[in-house]
Specification:
This protein is an alpha/beta fold and 347 residues long. The chain is 29% helix and 20% strand. It contains 11 helices and 17 strands. It has an 8-stranded mixed β-sheet with strand order 8-7-5-3-2-1-16-17, with helices on one face. A 7-stranded mixed β-sheet has the order 9-10-11-12-13-14-15. A two-stranded parallel sheet has the order 4-6. A hairpin with a 4-residue loop joins β16 and β17. It starts with 5 loop residues before the first helix and ends in a 14-residue tail after the last strand.
Length: 347
């Protein structure tokens, strides 16, 4: 029998009421011009002490194609998967059902041209199942990393979700460094990582008792360089410091330069690494996955603020949307960093 903490219920209700009042004054423009590419970094809401966990980024191209980089959180437990103990939020939240699907339906979108799963952790692939069942998903992409290498929460993805999708007739492609894709007119993708054979992991680099298999998918996240005309996006997934170093040692430095850097994980394993921040030198940084309210966003601001980037985080700004015609861009947010809801602490 499920129980619910009334204290959390009161807090969430209060936060929701504040969110409505703030968003009415700072509403994101839903209109998209025919020559614009729109990146929407979805906001994740969860009950309990952890807020803003899960990465789901929606890309709408000028020719009306829709792609996702990750599909949000849904807690899964399958055949010994690592359930992260008390760290993960409750099991009722589904990033696909509760966040991404309403966004798409409000825009009368019933087809998703492709979903790219950066790595097989449930805070990145969890929403995929609902989207697969309720939308037409034309293509699935991931790194193809074997389940034997990373023995934690990817089992449900590899042994249930991916086979189900393929059995339904969906098209699947594994992506490795050097691969290229076209997501519509003028939208080009180059995969920078992981390499063939994947990046090896060193157990000495991680906290004792934390399974190596938990970090291996992060290290081998699908890193994407996406260009729309003259604007460059870099999507890192949960790439940590070792993975960032691999990029610097193996990828043409020119390809690491980006106007917009999209982060998920921003923990002690990836911050601070100023050499990488300087190599990318982004103008805008968006942090789409936030473990709690402040830590990762503050880490990103400390690191990338030093190279002149403007940092946005879903914990501060709610939903973040960047629109570009390929030469200039504008960022719209649901709420300002100084809003009451952005500064509300949850016990």
């Amino acid at each position: 029998m499920c129980t619910f903490n009334r204290k959390y219920y009161f807090i969430i209700c209060l936060m929701f009421s504040i969110s409505l009042s703030v968003s009415c004054n700072n509403r994101i423009n839903e209109h998209q011009d025919k020559n614009e590419l729109t990146l929407t970094v979805t906001e994740t809401w969860t009950f309990g002490p952890v807020r803003g966990w899960g990465n789901g980024m929606i890309i709408q191209t000028p020719d009306e194609k829709v792609f996702l980089y990750d599909a949000g959180l849904k807690h899964t437990k399958y055949d010994g998967d690592d359930d992260k103990g008390g760290d993960y939020p409750n099991t009722y939240f589904d990033g696909g059902k509760d966040i991404i699907a309403p966004f798409l339906r409000e825009r009368s979108i019933d087809t998703i041209d492709g979903i790219l799963i950066s790595h097989s952790h449930s805070d990145h692939f969890g929403g995929f199942e609902y989207l697969m069942d309720h939308f037409k998903v034309l293509h699935l992409y991931d790194s193809g990393i074997p389940v034997e290498r990373s023995f934690t929460s990817n089992r449900y993805y590899d042994k249930v979700l991916k086979p189900k999708y393929i059995a339904l007739g969906g098209e699947y492609t594994s992506l490795l460094s050097g691969d290229t894709l076209s997501w519509g007119n003028h939208v080009k993708l180059e995969i920078l990582s992981p390499p063939k054979g994947y990046i090896p992991i060193d157990s000495s680099e991680y906290v004792p008792g934390d399974p190596i298999g938990h970090h291996d998918p992060n290290l081998n996240s699908v890193v994407v360089r996406m260009t729309y005309r003259n604007i460059v996006f870099l999507f890192l997934g949960d790439l940590n410091k070792k993975g960032q170093k691999w990029l610097m040692d193996n990828i043409d430095p020119k390809k690491l330069k980006a106007d917009v850097l999209c982060l998920a994980h921003q923990s002690e394993l990836s911050y601070p690494y100023m050499e990488f921040a300087e190599a990318v030198s982004p103008k805008v940084v968006v942090v789409g996955l936030v473990n709690g309210i402040y830590g990762p966003a503050i880490n990103a601001e400390k690191q990338y603020g030093k190279v002149g980037a403007k940092v946005y985080a879903t914990s501060w700004n709610g939903q973040i949307q960047l629109k570009t015609d390929g030469n200039e861009y504008k960022v719209e947010v649901k709420r300002d960093k100084s809003s009451p809801i952005s500064n509300m602490k949850i016990p």
